[in-house]
Amino acid sequence: MAYVTEQKPADYCNYVGGEWTKSSSGETLPSYNPATGEWVGTAQNSSVSDVEQAIDRAYDVFQKSDWGYNPKRRYEALLGFAQKIEENLERLATVLTREQGKTIKESRQELAGCVDTLKYFAGAARTVFGRSVQLEPGNFGVIAKEPIGVVGIISPWNWPALLMIRELAPALAAGNAVIVKPASLTPVISVELFKLIAEVPQFTKGIVSIITGPGRSIGAAMGVSKKIDMISFTGDTSTGKTIMELATSNIKKLALELGGKSPNVLFADANLDKAIPLIGRSIFISAGQICMAGSRLLVHEAVKDEVLARLKQYAENLCVGNGLLESTDMGPVINQDQLELVTEYCEIGKREGKMITGGHRLSGGEFDRGTFFAPTIIDELSPSCRVVREEIFGPVLAVQSFANEEEALAMANDTDFGLSAGVWTNDLNRAMRMSKGIKAGTVWINTYNKNFPEAEFGGYKQSGLGRTRGVDGLMEYCETKHIHFEVE
Ligand code: NAD
């Protein structure tokens, strides 16, 4: 076998006030490889008092340092961090795959995305422009953009490196102090990235901290803290609703990147040779554990049989296994709980629809060491079925068919979510009508999963609040101030 299965698990500390610190309770948080069950490392299981101290520290540093007034320093710091990740990319990709389970190819892609994002926002740090406006004779205003203060970033486990950096980069570029609370299932890759931050001298000491531990205690403590002025949360919609309630403590600014149930809408005139592998990839990438997964396929009835036969073949040809092998196309789901949840949805699918392929845990040999699930396609589901309506966060594609464009649009929008969608057609007019009609933050035409730091991303409806990436993504992390001048 070409990969190393066992490595000595390392211990990871919090990084607070520019120092490596341990949890005051002495409790720790072990992290395991979902492909093998091996112990990957141990982080701090921090307490509420640990996070309160970290918040006090960040608050002081924000008040006393020149970070918020020094865009060039911020540019150099973010660029330095990007360069460190580039130098360590292959090592970090292995850490990410060992902890999260995704394929090594996806890990490289995720870390390359981190580098690109940091470089983009390094430049953007020097473009936090306001404007001036003449208001009446002798009166003009400066509309200034300012950092908000201390920002708490709470991130998920599915793309733990990129989704942390996607928020960290603009928050720091805008001049804020930041405290990150990574997901409890992926603390190792998160702290590994902070070890690189610690090596970049341009970061003001204490301006950026990471503290690991359970969301329900320390994440919630960040949610209610009056010294935190904004929470940027990426995660489940139900947790997002809890964060909204917690944030009422001091009317915090919120940026919420939540769940999805995104459709691929496939018309009969589409280029099926291009569409089928990309639709397959859109749901089976990261074992379906991706917010923008194309988890619903809406297909025109004229091509449905052909499309299903070809998608079945695509799914059955995927090589599922340990992500460290270069030949692996799909890794495990994150843990036993997730495996059970996905199995439960598939049982519903079997009862209420027609199983085209998959629908079960993979077992035997190396599969028994991990939490592997077969790529699954379920057809003939009613619009009210839970498999169609709820985010499963696993490799499960729900298929429905339509007779015409009007019906396709209504089906695409028949969801509580609105994160993304794919439209497949060679008719430009139809593509325009559909992209205008679909209520989602991103609509891809004849492609899927294309994301760039310069293009905004976020959700309509229950998929979120605000936008990440791009100019709007930077502005989320700014306050706006009107400074008024009257000339005598
Ligand atoms: P989750 O909501 O369970 O956890 C996310 C983070 O919130 C973790 O760090 C967790 O510890 C913390 N948390 C949990 N309870 C908390 C509480 N009461 N107070 C404060 N923090 C708390 O989500 P997850 O399972 O880690 O991630 C999967 C979800 O994230 C899916 O719904 C997925 O669609 C969504 N997601 C959205 C995007 C996006 O950009 N829209 C990207 C990736 C993932």
TrEMBL record:
Gene3D superfamilies in the record: Aldehyde Dehydrogenase, Chain A, domain 1, Aldehyde Dehydrogenase, Chain A, domain 2
Keyword list, A-Z: Oxidoreductase
InterPro entries according to UniProt: Ald_DH/histidinol_DH (IPR016161), Ald_DH_C (IPR016163), Ald_DH_CS_CYS (IPR016160), Ald_DH_CS_GLU (IPR029510), Ald_DH_N (IPR016162), Aldehyde_DH_dom (IPR015590)
GO molecular function: oxidoreductase activity, acting on the aldehyde or oxo group of donors, NAD or NADP as acceptor
Positions annotated as active site in the UniProt record: E257
Pfam family, one: Aldedh
Domain Aldehyde dehydrogenase residue range list: 20-483
Entry superkingdom: Bacteria
PANTHER family, sorted: ALDEHYDE DEHYDROGENASE-RELATED
Annotated family: Belongs to the aldehyde dehydrogenase family.
UniProt protein name: Aldehyde dehydrogenase family protein
Species whose genome carries this gene: Brevibacillus nitrificans
Lineage per the UniProt record: Bacteria, Bacillati, Bacillota, Bacilli, Bacillales
